[in-house]
Amino acid sequence: MTSQLCDMLGIEFPLLAFSHCRDVVAAVSRAGGFGVFGATAHTPETVREELKWIDDHVDGKPYGIDVLVPENMATRGEGSVTAAALEARIPEAHRHFAERLLADADVPPPAEPVSRNRAQPFDPETALRTLEAAFEHPIRLIANALGVPPPEMIAMGKQHGVPVAALVGAREHAIRQVEAGVDIIVAQGTEAGGHCGEVSTLVLVPEVIKAIRPIREVPVLAAGGIMTGQQMAACMAMGAAGAWTGSVWLATPESETSPVFREKMIAASSRDAVRVRSRTGKPARQLKSTWTENWEKSPDSPGALPMPLMSLISEKSLRAADRAAEAGNDKARDMVTYFVGQGVGLVDSVRGAGAVVQDFKEEYLEAVERMNSLLAD
Amino acid sequence: MTSQLCDMLGIEFPLLAFSHCRDVVAAVSRAGGFGVFGATAHTPETVREELKWIDDHVDGKPYGIDVLVPENMATRGEGSVTAAALEARIPEAHRHFAERLLADADVPPPAEPVSRNRAQPFDPETALRTLEAAFEHPIRLIANALGVPPPEMIAMGKQHGVPVAALVGAREHAIRQVEAGVDIIVAQGTEAGGHCGEVSTLVLVPEVIKAIRPIREVPVLAAGGIMTGQQMAACMAMGAAGAWTGSVWLATPESETSPVFREKMIAASSRDAVRVRSRTGKPARQLKSTWTENWEKSPDSPGALPMPLMSLISEKSLRAADRAAEAGNDKARDMVTYFVGQGVGLVDSVRGAGAVVQDFKEEYLEAVERMNSLLAD
């Protein structure tokens, strides 16, 4: 199909796939979708390496990147802070609670020191330098996952002729984003995996479209819960220009997820995707596990720390749980979790990323045919 | 259009409208939708009176009724309990907190005594006698709003050849309902007004359709957040047999809502519809107001009471607030609330119920045309 959005991105089927995994990005774009590489926590050096790999495997098809430049963090206004300095701010109670959860599940404590090479989490300066590095590659979209993109980011997009997208979870945020100059709005419902708001996709998409129409004509992508071409068609019937997806790619062999997590995805119902603070410090939807349940509900829980401190505890602890689970520890398996949306309830198999794109196309057409046949009867 | 559901209900446009107001029910059915009269808390006598009125005003068009027979209540297993006896169980702390909220807003305390004529809230025996009275009228659907309908209800439906519908908020509940013998499933997302679960409509509808398919062929209506024909088309693109709606009718002049509440609906965004316990004791979505905020967040709040005790406090208090607000009390206006879904963010005017049905039909066709023109381009 053709549309303003398809023209902007150089595609014919407006299925956008967010993934931290270059293999998914390349496979989706090759199959006719549009891969978006999640570059948060990357350095300019590592992003160059990843995008070079994508360039070598994407057959010249378009793709984009996504960074996270949050407006509100515990480190706001402090400039550059080392990861080691951040680590030192984690209260003893939180450190001990995480250690006890791991010990109770017979998970060996994470040995890894705070890496000196890894970018400090969510540092705005690093994010902008990472973006500069990304522009050495033929990226066709830059997206900001949280809050209004900084003016530098919008300026960089304009300078390179690359559209800037922003994720929003509320009508009010969409208005701010359009006024700030973004080119594409991603209206993400509460059912989405990762950071999300409280309004459902079915309501948010038409609400955002209606709210921004008087300001400027900006394509709105629907996000949150979309795992099938029927759901994509549903959102486009309401006026969305396409679909932004994430969780569906976690159940592909190309993804960064572990086999254990993929098995848990297949077993899960939509109600197992809970919106809690116990991974990043902000409400983010993820698979319910003994990690999320204990941080949220245990009487001993010290509660979640603000972003970015919570991730310093959770990421290394959960990597340790992943390793133990893969080695056959059932209590560690119960702890395994990852960002995933309510759409996890629709997952019943692991499929290749290219096959998922094909299924979306077929399901999309089936949905349109269904609409026509209902009227024809 | 024709479909299994349309045949079951004797309609051509599968837009179902739940309303406590007979005027809405008759107007929707006359306009080609299907009105469903909310008969909870009615006695056999009052339901006869209401349905007689509908029969006189519906031009022979089909309509249905909805009752609420919850499985879990504070009064479970107690048989018949008088409203006065229930009133006596309300703790002093809760009574005082409600009184103080009203006093702080200069709302005169509710003078009304516990009515002896009114049915006790949600009494299963009364609900079944009410249903019997309803079958003296040409009803075409009986629906149960909470939990699995009791076997007597399903038997009554079969005996009269009237389909039985049940609302569900989770895949697991849909499976139980189909196994119990219901004829129509209403899959209601978390964005819905009133009692609701946690899964969004966009995910729940395909998840429920997929889960019940192996058991029996049962039409699934989509519910939660649906205020427009585009959203109805979206849900039907995913396989829903039609739409079950509620909140959209509250912004009609035929509705039981006050002018003040309708003005608040127009001003509200989707995030103003909060899912809290402070009206019925179970999580129910309603307009955020000083009533909901104080019960949920005030440090002095004693917390919500279980169903049905909470309604005994909230209903009379909120009626008093409504009256004071209509008389011009601004603090009372801030307290005014009612069950409403996130779709409230899409309301920008008060329209007649018949006009809403017409708009749904036109918007539905526009959505189908949009889908076709996207593919044709």
Automatic annotation (TrEMBL), chains A, B:
It comes from the Bacteria. Gene3D superfamilies: Aldolase class I. Keywords: Flavoprotein, FMN, Monooxygenase, Oxidoreductase. It is an enzyme of class 1 (oxidoreductase). The keyword Flavoprotein applies. Its EC number is 1.13.12.16. GO terms for molecular function: nitronate monooxygenase activity. This is Monooxygenase. It comes from Sphingopyxis granuli.
